[in-house]
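Our consortium's second objective concerns turning raw sequence data into structural hypotheses that experimental partners can test. To show how far this objective has progressed, the report includes one record in full. It was chosen at random from the queue rather than selected for favorable results. The single chain below, 153 residues long, was entered without modification.
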Amino acid sequence: MLWDNELEVEVYVGKTKMFGLWNDAYDGPVYIYPFREGGKFLCDYNDDTAMLVFVVDFSPVDTNALNSTRWPSDNYVRSHVATRMTNVVMDAKGVVRLPTYSELLEVSSNLACMSSRQLKAASFPWCDLGIFKTYASREHLISDLATNRENIW
């Protein structure tokens, strides 16, 4: 929250800061998924203009394979997410890009299998008022990752 003066959520691997995400009373990460193979993270981010889903990738990127992925299929949604995602990532040592279909499916499958307790532990609060915190539901997180997503929210 604003009174917390926490304007960045920092993501580390070991003792190395990999990137940060803007965080204030209106914007911030909802869920960050570290991929099994390492070197990349899927971020589900609550921007005040949309729910952004993007990957911060530190591995060598095959741009031809990534360019063939047209997620989300709606041109307006894809353009909006692509434009906004680089504005919320800070100090990235990797590439900020849209996810591939296989990445979306991996994260969705992982979310579907998590217990409620695991999901809460892996998520960031929507609202943090100290003793009272609210979190995005599993259904909301999975809908953000839908391969047929047609809405910026």
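The partners drew two points from this record. Residues 2-144 form one domain. DSSP finds five helices and nine strands in the chain. Both points have been shared with the crystallography group to help prioritize constructs.
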